[in-house]
Amino acid sequence: MTYARTPDANTSHRDEFKSLAHRRDRTELWDYFVKNWDECCEMWVMAYRVGLPHFGNHTNNRVESLFGKLKRYLKGHLTMRTSLKVLLAYQRRKEEEYTAKVEMPGTLRDVTYWEQMNIALGMTTRWVAAAIKTQYDVA
After folding, report:
1. Which InterPro entries does the record match to this protein (predicted)?
2. How many angstroms from the chain centroid is the CA of residue 73?
């Protein structure tokens, strides 16, 4: 159902799931689905999310998104050594992108903040950084 491209396909998959969930007069799974998932299908069924900005990330789980990105580089025929090199190169590239973003000239800095707070300030707005600082001050 998650990857249904049209509302009709979603309905078809939903009906199939309903018939499977009602086997042997057991309805607990179907009742759970209707109560918790059926009413909010606009949030998780692809057919209803087509017009939303998703920036190429169609999952609601960032770990699965990362695995999808890694699969672009990792192939089944690669040796363990080559796979490890690919993973380390990916990590190095991401670290360099992060460093360039955080330490880029012109990023916001505040002399009263310590380094971690300036990193947060460079990635967010002054308001968010101030909210984070108050939490650190309380702790």
Report:
1. Zinc_finger_SWIM
2. 19
